[in-house]
């Protein structure tokens, strides 16, 4: 079954989050009852991607059939903003719904950074778990590489 993008279901979450695309993070409702009423959610976040770099937004010269299908069968956003044009900062805002400056994440965190996403902040994955979703994350995390900052400590399986 094709996982449809349904970021609009984040009505209770920050408008900034609802307007962004992030990680490749498939999220599926856990229970049969939840699956019947809750959409599947896939968020794809790409650093340094221009508006017309993929087919659904007008890319020329190459094809992106899977992304085209996501856009056709799901929800396509045409205007979104991030809190900062650098990976760790924008991922922090997306995951928490808070401005990165408020959480002390500036720019890009390097390997061995002494800071990362705080346990005191609720992430999108933790919120979705409260709604009976199963969460997963693949790809670039970039919110700290120490054990306490890893995705498995912030709501992802």
Walk me through what this model shows.
With 157 residues, the chain is mainly alpha-helical. Helix content is 25%, strand content 4%. The chain has helices spanning 15-18, 32-37, 65-73, 87-96, 100-103, 124-130; strands at 27-29, 133-135. A two-stranded antiparallel sheet has the order 1-2. It is globular, with a radius of gyration of 16 Å.
Topology:
Blueprint: H1 15-18, E1 27-29, H2 32-37, H3 65-73, H4 87-96, H5 100-103, H6 124-130, E2 133-135
Antiparallel strand pairs: 1-2
> Could you give the distance between the termini?
21 Å
Q: Per the principal axes of the C-alpha atoms, what is the gross shape?
A: globular
By DSSP (H or I, 4+ residues per run), the number of helices equals 6
- Which strand-content bin applies to the residues? under 5%
Total number of beta strands: 2
Structural class, by secondary structure, is mainly alpha
User: What spatial order of strands do you see in the largest sheet?
Assistant: 1-2
- Which sheet architecture does the biggest sheet show? 2 strands, antiparallel
Sketch the topology as an H/E string, one letter per element: HEHHHHHE
Uncertain runs: 1-25
Radius of gyration based on Cα positions:
16 Å
Helix percentage range: 25-40%
Overall mean pLDDT stands at 80
Précis, in short:
The chain is built from 6 helices and 2 strands; from the N terminus they run αβαααααβ. It has 157 residues and is mainly alpha-helical.
Question: Which keywords apply here?
Answer:
157 residues, disordered N terminus, mainly alpha, two-stranded antiparallel sheet, single chain, 2 strands
């Amino acid at each position: 079954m094709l996982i449809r993008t349904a970021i609009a279901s984040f009505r209770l979450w920050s408008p900034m989050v609802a307007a962004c695309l992030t990680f490749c993070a498939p999220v599926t409702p856990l229970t049969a009852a939840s699956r019947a009423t809750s959409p599947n959610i896939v968020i794809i976040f790409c650093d340094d991607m221009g508006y017309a770099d993929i087919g659904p937004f007008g890319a020329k010269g190459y094809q992106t059939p899977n992304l085209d299908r996501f856009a056709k069968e799901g929800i396509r956003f045409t205007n979104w903003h991030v809190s900062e044009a650098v990976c760790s900062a924008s991922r922090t805002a997306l995951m928490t719904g808070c401005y990165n400056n408020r959480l002390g994440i500036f720019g890009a965190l390097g390997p061995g950074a002494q800071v990362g996403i705080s346990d005191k902040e609720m992430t999108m994955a933790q919120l979705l778990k409260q709604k009976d979703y199963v969460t997963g994350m693949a790809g670039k995390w970039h919110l700290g590489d120490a054990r306490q900052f890893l995705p498995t400590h912030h709501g992802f399986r």
